[in-house]
């Protein structure tokens, strides 16, 4: 999965560094969830009448 150079870089990180990275990725994920909610509110509602009238 990782080559030796990548493993060397990862081994130089402390547990605190990895926790900070994890928190950053979590925050980034939450931000994109928020953007998706905003986008969903901006899109026009989907017409359900066409599907149910068949």
Task: Provide structural commentary.
There is one protein chain. This protein is mostly helical and 54 residues long. It has helices spanning 4-11, 15-42, 49-52. The protein is elongated and about 60 Å long. The model has no long low-confidence stretch (mean pLDDT 87).
List keywords for this structure.
54 residues; single chain; 3 helices; mainly alpha; 74% helix
By DSSP, the count of extended strands is 0
- Give the termini separation: 51 Å
Structural class: mainly alpha
Q: What is the string of SSEs from the N terminus onward?
A: HHH
**What would you call the shape?**
elongated
The pLDDT mean sits at: 87
* Residue runs with pLDDT of under 50 for 5 or more positions: none
Helix content: over 70%
Main beta sheet, described?
none
**Quaternary assembly:** single chain
Topology readout:
Layout: H1 4-11, H2 15-42, H3 49-52
Short structural summary:
The chain is mostly helical and 54 residues long. The protein has three helices and no strands.
């Amino acid at each position: 999965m990782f080559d030796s150079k990548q493993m060397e870089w990862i081994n130089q990180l402390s547990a605190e560094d990895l926790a900070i990275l994890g928190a950053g990725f979590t925050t980034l994920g939450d931000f994109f969830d928020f953007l998706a909610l905003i986008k969903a509110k901006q899109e026009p509602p989907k017409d359900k009448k066409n599907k149910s009238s068949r």
